[in-house]
Design goal:
Helix content: 55-70%
Distance between the termini: 69 Å
Shape: elongated
Structural class: mainly alpha
Radius of gyration: 20 Å
Low-confidence stretches: 1-11
Number of strands: 0
Largest sheet: none
Oligomer: single chain
Strand content: under 5%
Mean pLDDT: 82
Length: 206
Amino acid sequence: MNKRGRPKKEDSLTDNKQKIVDTAIALIRKHGASAVTMRSVCEAAGLSIGTFYHYFANKDNLLMYFVREASFDSFALKTPFEDLAGRITELYMLLVGRYRSLGADFMKQFYTTDNRALSAYMGASPDKFPDGTVMARCEAELSAARQAGILAEEIDAHQASADVCTIVKGCVFEWCLGGGQIEIEPILRRILARYFDGIVRKQAGK
């Protein structure tokens, strides 16, 4: 039994993790993403470095939390498979929506070659994308489209998903360069439409 007035251990652990996340968001919004360091977060949250390491391996791992806090498996897409470019655009705009909520400054700091967590999350995978990620969901969508006869049997859904991920990264990077002012969705849809029409369907003999 816990001492009177003392929170349960499980509650304390959950509260500490949320405190780290909330503090990081507050620092980003007030000072920009460059102000987020393990030390600055811990000092502002009143927690030890050891507590930080209990939940996050490093700063990049903390930043990754903001795009991996929920699985993409559960989202219901409204765009039909016949409009494959539109369907995959709808899927990736769920991720872009998270980026937008954190702001252009966050993404400028996040989309760097030094971010090992980002490379692990959105990097090319020779075998399998991590479960619950937007890339894994994209591959599942393309596999379903292939089974429905929209894509030819010889189309490699995994490779196509990796290509799509590369396209999206380019669009997000362009968004960062533009200070978050450009509209990603129409650009992404247009490029993906050209990709599917000019590459996938060409290989399918259509």
